[in-house]
Amino acid sequence: MHGLRRVRPLHLALGLVALVVLVSTLVVHPNLPRGYLAYSTRPLWDTSEAPTDVIPHFWADDVPPTDLCKVHGWPPRSHPPQVWDATIFSTELDLLLVRLHELSPVVSRFFILESDRTFTGLSKPRILSSALDTDPRFKPFLAKVTYQPFTGAPLARGESPFEQEIALRRAMTDLLRTEYPTDPATPPPVMVFSDVDEVPSRKTAELLAACDFASPVHLGMKSYLYSFEWQEGGETSSWRPTAVEWPQRGRGSDEFYSWCFRRLSDFVTKATGYSHVDRLGSRPSALLRPERIQRTICSGLDFFAMLPEAYTYRDLFNKLRLVPSKSAVDVPTYVVEHADELRYLLPGEGNCIREDAPGRHGGVES
Length: 366
Hints:
Structural class: alpha/beta
Keywords: Signal, Transferase
Low-confidence stretches: 248-257, 362-366
Number of domains: 2
Order of helices and strands: HHHHEHEHEHEHEEEEHHHHH
Distance between the termini: 62 Å
InterPro entries: Glyco_trans_17 (IPR006813)
Number of strands: 8
Largest sheet: 6 strands, mixed
Protein name: Glycosyltransferase family 17 protein
Helix content: 25-40%
GO molecular function: beta-1,4-mannosylglycoprotein 4-beta-N-acetylglucosaminyltransferase activity
Oligomer: single chain
Radius of gyration: 24 Å
Mean pLDDT: 84
Pfam family, one: Glyco_transf_17
């Protein structure tokens, strides 16, 4: 009679490793965020492109902007220039109105470019063109708005969506060159480059007009996700908006993904049409289900079910789970004055429910 075969320790260890790998592949891996390995280790191998020389921003309502120049280390201007605002529009009518109301008291001209295609080459209507003609809410600003349509094209095989974005920004540069003042005695305008959902405050615009700042300067902004209920990062978590004295343009502005849309369908348009469409991965239908989008908005979770982009572990842990705000202080005036119309942008029970949500009047379906 033969005795039981002895299992060697090496074979046992290899078997345990194989079992762990199998369980991780079949059970753990599908439930982890997409790109978790790259995003969880980013603080180890990557660094932020954000500027490191940060100028503290000071403001007091009863102090003239010219006096505040000295606090910032800038000389006041003897002849304040015009302030021009340049932005590329996609679908954000509400946020454009917020922007116009916030900046119009300071900005002399608004330059807006609208394409008939998304960055991924998908056809879309130019909704701003008709809104400027028919929507009375835009009437007070028409004298300051220079609108130009842009004709896009389908993506060629192998072409990156960023090529479409670059083409739009070049078209904006060409438009501004045709409008640049020819009189050498005219002070060069201060240009603000940012996306529609990157809204500089009126106070910042007044400061830029009053002070001879060192051009270009990036504008640090608070970042809100889906609405003013969810703030992510600190006071300068968004830094890509830029102010320059034209024609010293500098780098311009990149996308800022605040995703503050009125309708769930707008989220789908954004996700399938912007430069980072690859974040949808291999499961776009699962990520773009209306029920799933609505739950994500109300929970303050990442739209693509990915880990947050962070360059230190402190920032990574702080962004993992956003804490909902119970107040909305120092938000643009237009939002507060039109709270009923723009309730989806404000904190409050039920405000996160979008107007085209499944079961809109009876709760979100699960």
